[in-house]
């Protein structure tokens, strides 16, 4: 009976989609991209879209030469198109005495010469190159009877401009952040590192989206084995579309089932530049106002950009508070549950009596209380994130106060549990990276269950499993707990729990495998 039911559901869900499938092309256009340029084939493929424009005209040399200029409306600079490209074609080419003697065989080379002083221009001969150029915003000049074409740089579209990063504020550091235009982002990075060793390698990912991706690294510092591994993993990606850089994160990480982030992301050029100078690699994706950083280590996610713009003594204090905040966010509910449920003898007698009095009318166990409060907290946080910013902040604060006060007044929750969960929530906000904060929120739940069922023994087992998991993690071959395990004394003292003063930091921190810029050997 159940088998028949699931078979019927499968047939019903698949039937409409089978009717909609139809063959548009007997030969997909992607399979023809290595063939010579064919204007008829390109127009057949692209003219069905209203934003793709072909302007047909005829050039007159020794013979009439039919041509067409193909552009995508909205991706080209119309002023540049009119003032420089069409003017060269319509005026200078016609008045050029050399051009008047041209034939179809050599017209491409003469047009290439005419465009060279004013625009970035190149000759192409493959069908795929012509389609890629047009859909990327360039103007493509076709000679209809020729198997070659000219790609003329005419890109120009509206972008957001360089603004202040929204998610990574800085008190004393730079205020500029990446935007959605890839070339703007690479230029911001070039301004930070003015050295020929900075390499920017371009590639396209996505069978349909053809998304531009740039891999950035400093050749004289980065481990080229890691660079090769990054390029290999990206080249192996087979997907229809890459809409944002965050999609690549899951496709290239070493351990996809781990809750801990293995790829860092930032929208600040200064952070990307500093990571590149430490031997790491950046991945920038067109349309994404942030960059991915690999390889990463766990201490990286507890550092913020202001750590490097403040005095070293202040950074030590702030980082200590940050680590204590992460410790409280992870273990505070579990410790409270274990102590009140199994280990009351660890508390002073007056505290035990006070807790017993507060919990006398509460109908739930300590574990049940904590789970209910954390569920309410997660709902409030998720609701606050999805609402507009002013309303979301109000809902989060007011909702927590109202629900907490009502739960205590109704006798469902003890006052001490509200304090513990509130302290846990506030401590979680000290974790700089949202991905790490999410991981701690996920791990906190099983630790609470272990503490509520087996006390400190269960909590110790959970922590041991977490430590073993962290020791086994790798990010592109780099140990996740480096420089703690394996221990690297210089890096540990220079930029982990503390930050050494700048006058004492004359070498690159030994956080990942890098090359010595003086000897060229791997450190």
UniProtKB/TrEMBL annotation:
One of its GO terms (biological process) is spore germination. Keywords: Membrane, Transmembrane, Transmembrane helix. The chain crosses the membrane at residues 321-342, 392-410, 416-435, 447-472. Pfam families: GerA (PF03323). GO terms for cellular component: membrane. Belongs to the GerABKA family. This is Spore germination protein KA.
């Amino acid at each position: 009976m159940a088998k028949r039911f699931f078979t019927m559901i499968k047939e019903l869900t698949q039937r409409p989609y089978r009717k909609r499938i139809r063959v548009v092309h007997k030969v997909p256009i992607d399979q023809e991209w290595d063939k010579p340029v064919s204007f008829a084939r390109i127009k057949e493929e692209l003219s069905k879209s209203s934003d793709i424009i072909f302007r047909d005209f005829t050039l007159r040399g020794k013979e009439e030469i039919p041509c067409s200029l193909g552009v995508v409306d909205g991706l080209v600079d119309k002023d540049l198109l009119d003032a420089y490209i069409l003017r060269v074609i319509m005026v200078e080419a016609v008045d050029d005495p050399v051009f008047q003697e041209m034939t179809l065989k050599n017209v491409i080379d003469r047009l290439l010469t005419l465009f060279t002083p004013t625009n970035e221009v190149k000759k192409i001969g493959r069908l795929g190159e012509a389609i890629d150029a047009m859909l990327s915003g360039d103007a493509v000049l076709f000679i209809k009877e020729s198997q070659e074409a000219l790609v003329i740089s005419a890109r120009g579209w509206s972008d957001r401009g360089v603004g202040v990063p929204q998610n990574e504020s800085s008190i004393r550091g730079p205020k500029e952040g990446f935007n959605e235009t890839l070339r703007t982002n690479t230029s911001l990075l070039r301004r930070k590192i003015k050295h020929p060793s900075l390499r920017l390698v371009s590639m396209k990912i996505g069978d349909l989206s053809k998304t531009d991706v740039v891999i950035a690294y400093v050749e004289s510092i980065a481990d080229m084995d890691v660079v090769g591994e990054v390029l290999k993993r990206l080249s192996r990606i087979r997907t229809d579309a890459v809409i944002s850089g965050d999609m690549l994160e899951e496709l290239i990480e070493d351990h996809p089932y781990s809750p801990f982030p293995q790829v860092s992301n930032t929208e600040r050029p200064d952070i990307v530049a500093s990571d590149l100078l430490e031997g790491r690699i950046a991945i920038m994706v067109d349309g994404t106002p942030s960059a991915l950083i690999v390889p990463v280590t766990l201490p990286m996610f507890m550092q913020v950009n202001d750590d490097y713009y403040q005095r070293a003594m202040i950074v030590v204090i702030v980082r200590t508070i940050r680590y204590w905040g992460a410790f409280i966010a992870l273990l505070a509910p579990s410790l409270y549950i274990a102590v009140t449920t199994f280990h009351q003898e660890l508390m002073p007698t007056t505290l035990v009596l006070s807790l017993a009095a507060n919990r006398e009318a509460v109908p739930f166990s300590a574990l049940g209380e904590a789970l209910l409060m954390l569920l309410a907290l997660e709902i409030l946080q998720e609701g606050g994130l999805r609402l507009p910013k002013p309303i979301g902040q109000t809902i989060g604060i007011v909702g927590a106060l109202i629900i907490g006060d009502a739960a205590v007044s109704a006798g469902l929750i003890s006052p001490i549990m509200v304090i513990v969960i509130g302290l846990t929530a506030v401590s979680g906000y000290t974790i700089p990276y949202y991905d790490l904060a999410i991981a701690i929120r996920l791990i906190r739940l099983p630790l609470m269950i272990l503490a509520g069922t087996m006390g400190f023994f269960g909590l110790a087992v959970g922590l041991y499993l977490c430590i073993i998991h962290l020791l086994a993690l790798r990010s592109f071959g780099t140990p996740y707990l480096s420089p703690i395990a394996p221990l690297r004394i210089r890096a540990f003292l220079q930029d982990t729990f503390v930050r050494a003063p700048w006058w004492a930091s004359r070498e690159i921190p030994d956080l990942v495998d890098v090359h010595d810029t003086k000897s060229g050997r791997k450190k």
